[in-house]
Write a structure and sequence with these properties.
With 133 residues, the protein is an all-alpha fold. The chain is built from 3 helices and no strands. This is 13888_t:CDS:1.
Length: 133
């Protein structure tokens, strides 16, 4: 004793699509732009999914996998940090031996054209011109 108005077919394998297909099959006799109402007496099996919290062995397995993943990420981050510090130490040793005071003054006196984002401008709806400092 319910009325159902279908405005679209719905996604494939959904309840809306199944109802639409059944309605379309039964109402093919009416070829007008608006098809007539159809009485559907259907029995359908529905699979209803819901989330349940993990318990017991599933919970312990999930936590152990999560812990292993965090340990791997921490080990990888430590390895990257160690390699970066080694590279920085090597570069600082080379730069201290090669660059003298006159070289530093010479580098500071040169001007370089670099794009620097203007801190006073904020992104908005309209496109703004870029500024080069």
């Amino acid at each position: 004793s319910n009325a159902l108005i279908l405005t679209d077919r719905g996604p494939p394998n959904s309840l809306a699509r199944k109802l639409y297909n059944e309605w379309d099959r039964l109402s093919q006799s009416n070829d007008g732009p608006v098809k007539s109402p159809v009485n559907l007496n259907l029995t359908m099996d529905l699979l209803i999914k819901k989330k349940v919290p993990l318990e017991g062995t599933e919970l312990s397995e999930y936590k152990s996998e999560l812990r292993k993943k965090q340990e791997r990420e921490a080990a990888q981050a430590a390895l990257i940090a160690k390699s970066l510090s080694i590279i920085e130490d090597d570069e600082s040793d080379e730069s201290e031996s090669e660059i003298g005071d006159t070289d530093i003054e010479e580098l500071l006196s040169k001007h370089f054209d670099l794009y620097v984002r203007d801190a006073t401008k904020y992104g908005g709806f309209f496109k703004q011109t870029q500024s080069y400092l």
